[in-house]
Amino acid sequence: MIAYVKGRLAHKNPSFVVVEAGGIGYHVNISLYTYTRIEGAEEVTLLTHFHVKEDQQTLFGFYEETERNLFRMLISVTGVGPATALVVLSTMNPDELRAAVIGEDVGSIRKVKGIGPKTAQRIIIDLKDKMIKESGESPTMLSPQSNTLRSEALSALVNLGFGRPAVQRALNRVLAAHPQTATPEDLIKLALRELSS
User: Fold this and answer.
1) Which residues, including other chains, have CB under 8 Å from residue 49's CB and lie 6 or more apart?
2) How far, in Å, are 84, 97, 144, 157, 181 from residue 185 at the CA level?
């Protein structure tokens, strides 16, 4: 119904903004990610999602299309409402969320307040294929042993100072190209090559 709101920022805080457009102040709920993008702005254009329930109508705003798409994907998952989806997008940026879902990183998704193990699994099951199709990344079928190797390598590389999303993408590529990798050390070496290329 409302595709975007463009106007002066009359009020701004990390969870919502009031955008004045055409003499009307629109109360728009935002994520922390969008807030960091508009922090210094006086005028904004926010892409919106208009959510209607029996007892309430709520406007959600996003700095970019990618984030709005992820929000819409999240609210399509059973048990994830708009408020929870906004918390997810406030905890993880779009790249981190995509990497966690495609990499089946339940632990990262569970760190989001209000997301339990079942909901984290459901988000991965429902959204992984959609996100792979959208991002063009190739899926990797991991054995339980590969999952253990992957989580050890992920932890080590993040501790070395690499960003989690970049590490997850590198590990996905390495495991797809070298499915027989047997030790965390070998996996880390291959991933380091990927990350420095």
Assistant:
1) 59, 60, 62, 68, 71, 72, 82
2) 37, 26, 17, 11, 9
Which has the closest alpha carbon to 26: 54, 46, 56?
A: 46
Beta carbons of 90 and 121 less than 8 angstroms apart: no
Give the residues across from 60 on adjacent strands.
29, 49
Exposed, middle or buried, 155 (CB in 10 Å: 0-12/13-18/19+)? middle
Cβ neighbours, 10 Å, residue 3: 9
Lookup: tokens for 159: 């501790």
H-state helical runs in the chain: 32-38, 65-75, 82-91, 94-102, 106-110, 117-135, 144-159, 164-177, 184-196
Q: What pLDDT, in 10s, does the model give residues 98-129?
A: 888 988 888 889 989 989 999 999 999 999 98
Under 8 Å between Cβ of 5 and 16: no
Both structure tokens of 98: 């995509």
Count other C-beta atoms under 10 Å from residue 108's C-beta. 21
Average predicted confidence (pLDDT) for the chain = 87
- Measuring CA to CA, how many Å separate 150 from each of 103, 127, 128, 187? 9, 21, 17, 8
DSSP string for 116-147: -HHHHHHHHHHHHHHHHHHH-PPP----HHHH
